[in-house]
Design goal:
The structure is a single chain. By secondary structure, the protein is of the alpha/beta class. It contains 14 helices and 22 strands. The strands form 4 sheets. A 7-stranded mixed sheet has the order 6-5-4-3-2-1-22. Strands 7-8-9-10-11-20-21 form a 7-stranded mixed sheet, covered by helices on one side.
């Protein structure tokens, strides 16, 4: 068995891990779009590093675009196999890929209208037609079911607690008389998440591919999320008469924010100001979550006994049309605007940031991870000048963050996730989906917990799991 890492290798995006068996069966774990990688992003998304026609199966851990966003490109380049995922992941992937295709097309049309003399016309990475074809190749598998894909491959999904439908992937792989047990964590959620169940325990593995986004961090804020939101909203909207602008991913983070704000209303603490969710995709994603109440934790189930809609409250309005979105930028009244994307690399949030970043009465609130090269990452890092829509803008707005709202587990959560394993039986643990410095620190923590063989793969690096027993960090 060989494993090759074609994305999220010493980086936090573009998840793609290719498992090749002796009989040439190829299993691709995730097929994500690279995002927020600066000038190299386009190049990274145009080259897989493997032949899509040779891939036998795809197994999808969850619906975030950095895990599923290149599936239509894979299909367009010749992949004809089946894509396996959980039911909720299928529902989310449908809306996210259609939205992504629309963005790809719009961005390409814009670029082609502004070509310099002699430049070639660009094509989108994929179209809505490619997405429709891709969705026809999906097959859903429920959690905690041992599903035999072929005589050589059996898959089981366990709840990863990251977003609705997210799963850790567990494979039993037969190569003649040899049997290997491989676990891919996908993205691991929080233990004690606001909305979702905690990550499940899983069967003993021989090989583990493990995410490490927050491998050097603890999400321990001094106050509960509700209290922090309330303090920021009161200070900005009531005292300074400004706006709170929140870049938030349409899936997961937006719903957590709405749930927390709804909790404030139930306690009669929510200020009487307008709240806007300016993202058509967020509306659809919220409905998907409502359609899958089986993922809720016990706390949410208790709230549902007294409030039938935990994502709605007085003063909330969902914005769909472009005209309504533009009108928000011309409205001087204090308000809270939640808009995608979370890294502020695309979508309507960039317009709201441009409109508010130059005024000290406003607050831009970060509520999750942002790669250093992204606009959100630069704001979090304290940059005093940003370049947006071909303008150099001075950052005068207050930049705040609530790190505990990340859907990624911190290092205690990640170690908790691994605690069901006997380290002595794990032949190799690969760290992916993390910045290299963070991964190096997390690798040391893992070793201190008994996992002797920990590796941080490079981009396109291949490992023969039956020939080598240890590789260097």
């Amino acid at each position: 068995m060989k494993i090759t890492f074609h994305g999220a290798a010493r980086a936090v995006t573009g998840s793609k891990h290719l498992v090749t068996l002796k009989n040439n069966t190829q299993i691709l774990l995730d097929c994500g779009l690279f995002q927020g990688m600066g000038d190299s992003t386009e190049k990274l998304n145009s080259y897989f590093g493997f032949n899509p026609k040779a891939v036998t199966y795809v197994i999808l851990s969850h619906a975030h675009i950095d895990h599923c966003g290149l599936l239509p490109r894979l299909v367009a380049e010749g992949f004809k196999g089946t894509i396996y995922c959980t039911p909720a992941t299928m529902d989310l992937t449908r809306i996210l890929l259609m939205d992504s295709a629309k963005i790809q097309t719009q961005d390409t049309e814009y670029a082609n209208r502004h070509l310099a003399h002699g430049e070639e016309i660009e094509d989108p990475l994929y179209t809505e037609e490619d997405v429709v074809k891709t969705l026809s190749q999906f097959k859903i598998v429920d959690y905690n079911q041992d599903y035999k894909i072929s005589p050589e491959v059996t898959v089981r999904f366990t709840d990863a607690g990251h977003i609705v439908g997210s799963a850790a992937v567990h494979l039993v792989l037969k190569e003649g008389k040899e049997i290997s047990r491989l676990t891919f964590s996908g993205d691991v959620g929080r233990y004690g998440d606001l909305l979702l169940k905690s990550p499940q325990t899983f069967p003993q593995a021989d090989y583990i591919i493990m995410e490490s986004t927050y491998g050097d961090s603890l999400h321990k804020d001094l106050e509960p999320i509700e209290n922090m939101l309330l303090e920021i909203i009161r200070e900005t909207c009531l005292t300074k008469k400004g706006k709170v602008v929140i870049p938030a991913f349409s899936v997961g983070r937006t719903q957590e924010l709405l749930y927390a704000l709804n909790g404030l209303e139930l306690k009669n603490k929510l200020p009487d100001i307008p709240f806007y969710v300016d993202s058509p995709l967020s509306i659809q994603a919220t409905q998907v979550l409502k359609n899958h109440p089986e993922v809720y934790n016990n706390g949410v189930k208790e709230v549902l006994k007294v409030d039938e809609d935990v994502f709605s409250f007085k003063g909330l309005k969902f914005i769909e049309s472009v005209e309504e979105s533009k009108a928000l930028n011309n409205d001087p009244r204090p308000c809270v605007i939640i808009s995608a994307s979370g890294m502020a690399e695309g979508g309507r949030i960039r317009h709201h940031i441009r409109n508010t970043v130059g005024n000290a009465k406003n607050t831009i609130l970060m509520v999750g991870y942002a790669s250093p090269d992204s606009l959100a990452g630069k704001l979090m890092a304290g940059d005093k000048n940003i370049y947006l829509f071909r303008e150099h803008l001075q950052v005068k707005a207050e930049i705040r963050s609530i790190k505990s709202m990340s859907a990624h587990g911190d290092y205690e959560d990640l170690l908790h996730f691994l605690s069901c394993q006997d380290p002595a039986l794990v032949q190799q643990l690969f760290l992916v989906h993390g910045e290299y410095e963070v991964q190096q620190k997390f690798a040391q923590r893992i070793k201190e917990h008994g996992f002797k063989h920990v590796t941080i793969p490079e981009y396109h690096q291949e490992f023969d799991c039956k020939k080598e027993t240890e590789w260097s960090i």
